[in-house]
Amino acid sequence: MDTKKVKFPHGIPGHNLSEVEREIPTGEPPAWPINDDLKVVGKRVKRTDALAKVTGAAKYTSDIQLQGMLFGRMLRSNYPHAKIKSIDTSAAEKYDGVYAVHVFKNAVGMAQAKDGGNSAGFPDVKFAGQPIAGVAAISVDVAEEALKLIKVDYEYLPFVVDLEEAQKPEAPVVFKTDVDQEDRGGGGGGQSGLKTKGNLRGPSTSSFFGGPRGDVEKGFETADFIVEHVYRTQVHTHCSLETHGVVVDWRPDNVTIYASTQNTNSVRHEFAEMFDLPKSKVRVITEFMGGGFGAKHSLGNFGVMAGHLSKKSGRPVSMMLDRKEEHISSGNRPNSVQYLKIGAKKDGTLTAIKQKSHGTAGVGLGAGVGRIAQVMYECPNFSTEQYDVFTHAGPGAAWRAPGNVQGAFGLEQAMDELAEKLNMDPLALRDVIDKSDVRKVERQRGAKQFDWSRRKKPGSDSGTVKKGLGMAQSTWPRFVNLNSTVEIRAYKDGAIEVRSGVQDIGTGTKTILAQVVAEELGMKPEDITIRIGDTLFPTGPGSGGSIVTGSITPPARNAAYKLKLELFDQVAKELETVSSKLSMSGGFIVSQEDNSKKIAVKDALKKMRTEQITTSASRSDDYGGFKMGSFLAHGDLGSVQFAEVSVDTETGFVKVDKIVAAHSCGRPLNITQLEGQINGGVIQGVSYALYEYRVMDNETGHQMNGNLDQYKLPFAMEIPEIETIIVEDYGGRSSTDAYGIGEPANIATAVAVANAVYNAIGVRIYELPITPDKVLKALNKI
Amino acid sequence: MVSPIHLKVNGQPRSDEVEPRLLLVYYLREVLNLTGTHVGCDTSSCGACVVLVDGKAVKSCTMLAVQADGSEITTIEGLANGSELHPIQEGFKEQHGLQCGFCTPGMIMTALQLLERNPDPNEAEIREALDGNYCRCTGYHNVVKAIQYAAKKMKKEVFHD
C-alpha cells in the first residue's frame, strides 16, 4: 500500500501538546487540527434524532406493529433446578387464538455443558425463570392463558443460589462437566477451556494484557506497608427501560428481525447460524433502542423462540420480555468477593499486588473482576486468580466495563487506605504510581474544580451529618473493531446519506457520524442524512466496550473524503484548476488558487453522470500500529472522579452531594453528548454504590425484588450535582482520533463514593451497596 | 366479552369495543397505534406510560381503557401543533433532555402537568414532580434544564398573548 507521511496533533492541549509524524495510506485524509480549529467536530451539536424522540414518532422494537403480527410469551420454570421428564402442549395448541407452540430442545443464552446437559430430549432447568416453551397468539393475554395449559412433568432437584453456599463441598452442582460460553458480539461469555470443579470454574490468571508478573511473595517481603482486605459487591441488574425483545417476520425468501439490540451484526450472525440460513437472507433492524448497557448483544433465547414461532405460524411474532423476565433472565452484573493484598514502599512505590476473586454469573460465565488491578498502576509483581462460581440463578451479562467496576471497588479503596498509611494525599500517591499523562492532568484539573483542598482528616467533621470527600481513578482500553464499514451516497438533488449497520443505542452515534461527515464535506450536520442500524447496510461494530466511536468514525470520515475527491475530479476542469487545488467549505467547492472560482456542492452534484455516487471505507489499521493484535489501540481511556457525600450518622443514610468527573476519550466529538454519557455513567455508579441489589430467596431460588418497585433506582431528586471535565488527548492514531466514553464513565464512581464515606465517618465499608444498615453497623450503632 | 367506550384522544372522538381487562396503555398502543406512550414496567414505577386524562397526568398502565370512557386523553402524539413543537418538546430537544428517548414521552407529559399547575417551578419542585419517572441512560439534569427552558418560553408566550 502506498503511504504518505503526515503530522498529527499529539498530546494534551494546555499540558504537552506537540506533533507526531505518522505514515498513513495515501488514500486517507490529512490530519485534522485540534478541536479549537474545527467547525462542527468537538462542538455542542444537537442530536439528529431528538425530533423523533420528543414527538413519539420514534419506533422502538416494542412499537413495531406488522400486519397479522402475533404476540409471543414464554413458559418459564418456577423451579431453580429440575429435570424435565415430559411436556404436553396439546391443550395449548388447541386453544383459541394460538397459532404456534414451540418447546426448546437446547438451552440458549447460558454456559453450555460439554455433555449437553439434556435429559429426555429437554434441557435441564438450571434457574428459576429458564424458558422451556413458547406460544404465539393473537394477544399477550391469550398467549399467557395458553401457557397455563402446558403441562410439564418435572423431577425437582436441590439447588443453590448463594455465592458462598455454592462453594461448599456439599452444594448442589450446577454443571457436572466443563462448560464454555461463547462471547456473543462483545456481550459476555468467558475465557474458554478453564476447568470446572464442583461449582468453581477457573481460575483465570491471565488476560490479553498478559499473565502474572514477577514474584508477588518476594514483592511483599520488600514492602514497607501492606494493605489486605476482602471487598464484596452485589448483583446488579441492568434495568434498561425498554426490555429485551424482538419482532421476527419469517417470510419464505427472507427473515426480518426488529431487535432491541446493541449489535445488529451479532444478532444476524446468531440467527443465521441457529436456523441454518445464509446471512444474506437475514436482516436485522434497530432504528431506535431503549437502553442496553451491555446486556443486549445477543439474539437471546427469546429471539430464538420468536424465530421458531414465526417460522411455524407463518406470521410475524413480537416477543418482548416483561419487567420480571428482564430482571431474572436477561443478564446482570455478577457479584464478587475479592481478596486484595497490596504492598508498597514508604515513598508509595508498589511492590506487589495479589488478587483472588469469586463471583457468580449464575448459569453464565463472566464473573471476573476485570483487569484494572493488573494494568492501572506500575507494579513489578502481580498475580490474580479469578473464579466463576455457578449458582442456580439467571446468567450474568456484560455491563459497562465488565468486571472493572467490581475490581475498582477493591483496588481504589485499597489505594485510599494505602495513602493514609503512607501519610500521603491520595492524589500524591497516584502521582507516584500512575504513569498516565492524561490521568495526571485529570487529577490536577479535577482537584481544582472540586476544591480537593477542603478535604479533612477521616471522621473529623463535626455534627451528626458528616461531610466526606473521596476520589478514585479508572482505565479502560481503547478497543477497535476493524469490521466497521461506512457507505456514503451523494444524490443528484444534493442529498448526502450515510449508511452503516452500526446501531445508535441512545448514546448519539447518529449525531457524531453526521458531525464527522459534515466536517469533512464543509457542510452542516443537519444536511447529512444518517441511516444506520440495519444489516442491509455495510457491517458496523457492536455497541459495547466503548468501541463504536473509535471504530466507525474514521471510516465515516474516510468515505466522505473519497466522495469529496470524486466530486473534485468532476468539477476541476470547470473551475479551471486541478482537483488537488480544490477545497470544500460552507457548502461550496472552491479553487484554492482563486477563491472567486467556486461552485455550490449542490450544483456540482447536479452535474454527476449518474443519479448517485457511492463511496465506502472500512476501518483501517491504527496509524503507527496497535498495542496488541488489531483490536487493542495504544493509549487508554483514563478517568478520575471526585465524590462529596453527606453521611447521617444517626440514620446511616448516605447522600452523594456532588461528583466531579474528569474524563478523556482521545478527540472529543460532541461535548453535550459526552456530558450526557458521563452523567448516565455516574448516576448508575451512585446507584450501584447506594441503592441497587438483587435479593435472592435462598429457600425458593427466586429473586424477591424482580420489579422496578422494590428494586430501587434513583429518581431526579436522588442524584448528585455532576460536573464534567473533558480532557482532549490527541494520539494521531486514526483520521478522527476519537473514542467512546460509555465504560469509563461508570467505573470509578462507586468507589469514589466509598472513599468519601470513609472520609466522612472514619470507618471503611467493604461491601456494596452502602445501605444505612451497613453504615450503622460500621459505626457500632446496631 | 367486550364493552363499548367513547372518548376523545388528542382531540379526535373515538368509539371502540374493548375487553374490560384491557389497560389504557395497550388501548392507545395497540388499538390506536399511538406507540409514543411506552411500557417500561408493570408496577406503575417507571412513568414511561404517562398520558393526560382530563388534564391529569396518569400512568396509563394503571388504568383500564373502560375507566377512560368519556374522558379526554392527550398523548405525546397530540402535543405538537402541526410541525410546531410544544415548548416542552422543544426544551427536551434543545437542552439534550434525552438519550435513548424511551422515557421521554412520559417525562414530557409529566412536565406538562407540572407547568400547568405551577408555571414557574423552582429546581426542587421540578425534581419532585419527576419523582415517578425513571431515566436509566443519562439521568435527570438535562431533563430539569429542558423543563426550565419550557417554563421560560411558556411564560413569554402568555405575555405576548
TrEMBL record, chain A:
The keyword Oxidoreductase applies. The keyword DNA damage does not apply. Residues 55-158 form the Aldehyde oxidase/xanthine dehydrogenase a/b hammerhead domain. Transmembrane segments: none annotated. Residues 177-214, 444-468 are annotated as: Disordered. Keywords: Molybdenum, Oxidoreductase. Pfam families: Ald_Xan_dh_C, MoCoBD_1, MoCoBD_2. InterPro entries: Ald_Oxase/Xan_DH_a/b, Ald_Oxase/Xan_DH_a/b_sf, Ald_Oxase/xanthine_DH-like, AldOxase/xan_DH_MoCoBD1, AldOxase/xan_DH_MoCoBD2, AldOxase/xan_DH_Mopterin-bd_sf. This is Xanthine dehydrogenase family protein molybdopterin-binding subunit.
